[in-house]
Amino acid sequence: MKIRNILLTLLIASSIIGLSSCLRWAARAESKLPAETALDKTYNYDGKVIIVGAGAAGMAAAKVLEKNNVDYIILEATDRYGGRLKKDTSLADFPIDIGAEWLHSAPITLNKLKGKKGQEIDEKLIPYHLTSTATWDGKEYKISSSRQNDFMYNFMPESKFKETTWYDFVDEHIAKTVKHKIQFNSPVSSINYSNNKVIVKTKNGKSFEADRVLLTVSVGVLKSNMISFTPAMKQERITAINSLTFNPGFKAVLKFSEKFYPDAINCIVESGEKVYYDIAFKKDAQTNILGFLCTGNGTQRYYDLKSEKEIITSLLQELDQIFDGKATQTYTGDFILENWGQYEYTLGTWTQAFQEKNSDLKLISQALDDKVYFAGEIFDPYKQMGVPGAILSGYYMIDQLLLAE
Ligand SMILES: Cc1cc2nc3c(=O)[nH]c(=O)nc-3n(C[C@H](O)[C@H](O)[C@H](O)COP(=O)(O)OP(=O)(O)OC[C@H]3O[C@@H](n4cnc5c(N)ncnc54)[C@H](O)[C@@H]3O)c2cc1C
């Protein structure tokens, strides 16, 4: 979903020069998947490891440590695990992903993430092949052709979980064996790696010691300087981190008594993304749930409003403009707003490695003195992005950490 705006541009280009066959996103992503991951290996490491962050990357790394009986703990700033994965079961008659939602790459990726061999997928997936979409530039509502919808799907054959969520997938296949090692409400504020042992301190005054640390906080948290390093990171690395794009943004979910909207409405924006979409698309659902994703420059106008309710009112007004008052007439008053861009321990939405300079990615992926390692979606060497990228980075970086001399 996140590269939809780029796709719109490509769509126009493709009609001129026929790009679709050579650029197929999912095929490229699948071809970059590793043949094996740390789940397929065994390790013999007798040091202690601290993982900072219980998101997909941190817990994937922990799964490897757990499997190999390595001594470790996970320090998590909040009172929950999952990071940018979260689900709601209160609004609709199906579970809603209010963080990551789509599988952007081929279904076989799921097997790689959970360490299953073979081609058969256990999960029930919905191919995200939309048939009714439109664009909206604030004035004109244009229905897209079936050719355009087919192009989108052929270029990037995404899918969604039919009965479950991304959160459930990670909960079942990754968190299950490691969650007992999480110390919640432990926001890390400093990492001192100047001596033999690494000292990690939290905001609430606790101190922990380990041989090696794996830091999996978001790029937003890294940029915020919430965590200080001793010795300080080199300026070159700080500059590379600061140059990464990690847009602000949020997801809203609204409930209606009628479905008056198409599968998706892509709003034309200068940067980032703004899209209304039917969250119940091809789910076995009786409830009408419309999602709204906004990232990039367009987010600020919503952040300038005083409350979540005002943001929802503004969305209803825009929908009323397109659908002749239908939104307000059928809105049930139920909504969720998940403001990832302003959550203290996320401070943004997602990164897109393919947009960043390879030299920057290489630089920021290096460990500090072979003691402090980094993982998380942007550190994925296989450039899968999103949740698969986060999990694969966890496997890759913990392998590096365990094997370093
Ligand atoms: C609205 C939204 C929609 C998305 N849609 C998709 C999608 O459709 N498909 C997809 O694949 N991806 C999607 N993504 C991206 C995906 O969610 C992320 O790539 C992935 O979850 C990142 O995992 P991570 O472990 O790298 O980071 P995180 O999930 O951010 O985990 C980092 C963890 O570190 C913790 N932490 C932060 N600071 C500290 C600290 N100082 N001390 C201790 N702990 C700390 C955090 O609380 C968090 O638990 C979406 C993201 C958002 C926000």
Characteristic terms for this protein:
405 residues; alpha/beta; 2 domains; seven-stranded mixed beta sheet; 13 helices
Structure, described:
By secondary structure, this protein is α/β, with parallel strands linked by helices. It has 13 helices and 21 strands. It folds into two domains: 38-83 and 171-244 and 351-403, FAD/NAD(P)-binding domain (3-Layer(bba) Sandwich), CATH 3.50.50.60; 132-152 and 247-342, Polyamine Oxidase, Chain A, domain 2 (Alpha-Beta Complex). Helices cover 31% and strands 22% of the residues. The strands form five sheets. The chain has a seven-stranded mixed beta sheet. Strands 10-2-1-14-21 form a five-stranded parallel beta sheet, covered by helices on one side. 42% of the residues are buried. The structure holds flavin-adenine dinucleotide.
TL;DR of this structure?
This protein has 405 residues and is α/β, with parallel strands linked by helices.
Write the layout of secondary structure elements.
Blueprint: H1 4-17, H2 25-31, E1 48-52, H3 56-67, E2 71-75, E3 87-88, E4 96-97, E5 102-103, H4 109-114, E6 125-127, E7 133-136, E8 141-143, H5 146-155, E9 159-161, H6 166-175, E10 182-183, E11 188-192, E12 198-202, E13 207-210, E14 212-215, H7 219-224, E15 228-230, H8 235-243, E16 249-256, E17 264-267, E18 273-278, E19 288-295, H9 300-303, H10 308-323, H11 326-330, E20 331-338, H12 358-365, E21 372-374, H13 386-403
Parallel strand pairs: 1-2, 1-14, 2-10, 7-17, 11-15, 14-21
Antiparallel strand pairs: 3-4, 5-9, 6-9, 7-8, 11-12, 12-13, 16-19, 16-20, 17-18, 18-19
Helix pairs in contact: 1-5, 3-13, 8-12
Bound molecules: flavin-adenine dinucleotide (FAD).
The site of flavin-adenine dinucleotide has 39 residues, from helix 3 and helix 13.
